[in-house]
Amino acid sequence: MKVPFKVVSGSITAPKGFRAAGVFCDIKRLGTGKGSQKGKKRDIALIISAVPATVAGMFTTNQVCAAPVKVCVERVKGGIAQAIVVNSGNANACTGKQGMKDALEMTSVVADQFHLSKQYVLVGSTGRIGVTMPMENVKSGIKDAAWRVNSTTENANQVAEAIMTSDTKPKQIAVEVQLGGKTVTIGGICKGAGMIQPGMSATGARPAAVPQGLHATMLSFITTDAAIQASVLQVALEEATAQSFNRITVDGDMSTNDTVLVLANALAENDAITSVKSKDFAAFQTALNYVCLELAKMIVRDGEGVSRFVTVRVNGAKTFADADSAARAVANSALVKTSWNGGDPNWGRIIDAIGYSAATVVEEKVDIGYSAPGSKKIILSLKRGQPTKSTFKALCAAVAPKEFDLHINLNVGKAGALMYAADLTEEYVEFNKGDVTDPGSLGG
Amino acid sequence: MKVPFKVVSGSITAPKGFRAAGVFCDIKRLGTGKGSQKGKKRDIALIISAVPATVAGMFTTNQVCAAPVKVCVERVKGGIAQAIVVNSGNANACTGKQGMKDALEMTSVVADQFHLSKQYVLVGSTGRIGVTMPMENVKSGIKDAAWRVNSTTENANQVAEAIMTSDTKPKQIAVEVQLGGKTVTIGGICKGAGMIQPGMSATGARPAAVPQGLHATMLSFITTDAAIQASVLQVALEEATAQSFNRITVDGDMSTNDTVLVLANALAENDAITSVKSKDFAAFQTALNYVCLELAKMIVRDGEGVSRFVTVRVNGAKTFADADSAARAVANSALVKTSWNGGDPNWGRIIDAIGYSAATVVEEKVDIGYSAPGSKKIILSLKRGQPTKSTFKALCAAVAPKEFDLHINLNVGKAGALMYAADLTEEYVEFNKGDVTDPGSLGG
């Protein structure tokens, strides 16, 4: 079978016609009065397409959502955008009317620099909540970045760095997919390490199907030179998000700022994708799914203090909602997550979490086991509610690797769901308790 | 106004006609093959009334519930009991048919020792899940305890110690209340430190009104010499639990074993309370509420690794369910709890958690503030969604004490709810990740 896409180097500047830059304008220091910033970490970023692009977006369903999210929700409805400005160090959340004014001004400054309609400029922010944006710095930072935009890989790196907060490394990917004889490229970056359990929807409103009660700030910006209608692109992004960003959790806290944006500028000159039923749509969807999933997994692997990456696979549930609830209960249980940290195959804590989830659970039917990532060779610790003959040593060996899969079969139905989850470590607590003598160290 | 009750010394042996004992029978060591038990911590306990008593109970709503819980749910329906046997070190949960056989045998051994109907004997367990009970030790332990039962305060202490797992101290209280000229005494003990967010109901079934998705094992045993009908006692216990044990969280994990039992043996010779409308019922309820609330708070204060005790008070919600959801979201947020640990008045994380709760929230209406425990002198950090002029230093001072109240007003309705919550510390993680080279160190 032909591989539908291939991974290539670079990220958001890999598709034709995209330029980017990330610069330092000292947002964090000014935002909190003192700051702990070592050196000059880039904190403002610009992404711009040479021509107007179709756009799609997914946004936090948190009822308390940041000003930049509100701006994007409205502008994405228009279906066209050309630039994205992003800052780290300040979430511009819970900043009231001033926050909205500041978010709009950020887009206006970009529009002025490039002679665009400000309606075509989107904005994202991540950082501490409740602090007004240091706009003088932000404005000069945007102007600086506007001077520097370029299509080099180095410039894409700058942007991936500029959107980082507690991330330890930039997160980037690009793929190429053939659509009707044309090479289409999709590039993406993301950030996120704590306050991570996104539950995004297209409008920020809560659809019944989006599980609630999750994540931390994650931002992802994806560019492509595909020609694809905005409404079709939105369908593709919703599907891609549902199986990637909305399936991850680091600490179970859903942020006020979670945002995914895709710009598609048509410069690959493929026949425009105008229907979800076309063959090209399927290929594009497959590639976009891969981009989003790889980015989402990078967030969990780089989660604050994370030492283990666990894929929680629930099957045999009565409904998807049941499978989802069981998977999230396990993925967010403090006791399960600390046992993962300790390399302890503690299935008792796992079945306890399943039992208090909203899923229908019959103790005597539950199977619990472990495997290497993606492997079907499962070592069971519990079979139909009874401990198996697997030795403690063998189970410890199964959960010792940095990455493993946890398999849960409720055996009461046919629905399944999975979550990409992380352990809970002393380092997470140490990092997030911060240092009140140094307010700059205090996160989102 | 006359104080309706007074605190007295002692606990479960303070009411007339109750004897108790706690002994060591090495349950933990045998249960896990190696064990880390230092010294000989008491691990089996007996409580017995001189005469049959009316009984009431509240039980975990976890769908995966331990054998002793199943036994109690059935026997409490009969309305009469005379003895309770409890072990620590092994939860007897997820132990299948053997576990049920063992739980029943524990009650039979007690019945034999005291020539009781085994239907009058209740049983509780707490400890590691999924390990079969070491019944030879348990049986000899019960017989040993049966020899030693006595009504001294020292014997009550033994029981409070014997039910401990990760608790650092025994938890006990007793009060006296005057009912129709007779002095009625209520004594209680409890245990619990991790896997704590109970959501108990009278039958273990999930009523819509019991919030789900919570706790860790907590056990509480309450004795009284009051004369009170079993059905009326059940009403009183449900009310008392709703405002105490069901309002606490340490780590958000609901246990398979949560149990509260009350025995009332009528030896105080008060006129039997046969209606919830009587004046004596109101006085009894007030005293029982106090006993349960003080015991519940002891659990949170002694929670695993806990350094701060926070009362989360949500008001102005549209419904109680909304207030409850917002309070639990805040009380269980990893980011909020780590900020409490750091002494950081991080209202951004608090409003983030409120925003992703199931409560209806309008950002522009939310007030957030702090006070000393029970004080109405609130320092606001957020007023109608806007940061106040309170300085960072003043807010830090408000959250520096070991105990404080967090006040949240959603200002969209009239309903309220509170939660007694704890911070999340490195010590919690260190304790719960355990040491797989020493399985005896691995908790529930």
Describe this protein's structure.
2 copies of one chain form a homodimer. With 444 residues, chain A is an alpha+beta fold. The first copy, chain A, folds into 2 domains: 5-301, L-amino peptidase D-ALA esterase/amidase; 309-424, ArgJ beta chain, C-terminal domain (Ubiquitin-like (UB roll)). Chain A has 12 helices and 16 strands. In chain A, the strands form 2 sheets. In chain A, strands 1, 2, 3, 4, 5, 6, 7, 8, 9 and 10 form a 10-stranded mixed β-sheet that branches. A 6-stranded mixed β-sheet of chain A has the order 14-13-12-15-11-16. In chain A, a hairpin with a 2-residue loop joins strand 6 (171-179) and strand 7. In chain A, helix 2 (67-76) crosses helix 3 (96-114). Chain A is globular.
CATH homologous superfamily classification of the largest domain in chain A: L-amino peptidase D-ALA esterase/amidase
Helix content of chain A: 25-40%
Please write the CATH class name of the largest domain in chain A: Alpha Beta
- According to DSSP, the number of beta strands of chain A is 16
In terms of quaternary structure, the protein is homodimer
CATH topology of the largest domain in chain A: L-amino peptidase D-ALA esterase/amidase
Measured distance between first and last alpha carbons of chain A: 45 Å
Average of pLDDT of chain A: 91
User: How many structural units, i.e. domains of chain A?
Assistant: 2
Biggest interface, CB < 8 A:
A-B, 75 and 76 residues
Uncertain segments of chain A: 30-38, 208-216
Rg of chain A from C-alpha positions? Answer: 22 Å
Major sheet summary line of chain A = 10 strands, mixed
**SSE order of chain A, one letter for each helix or strand:** EEHEHEHEHHEEEEHEHEHHHEEEHEEH
Please identify the structural class of chain A as seen in this structure.
alpha+beta
The rough form of chain A would be described as: globular
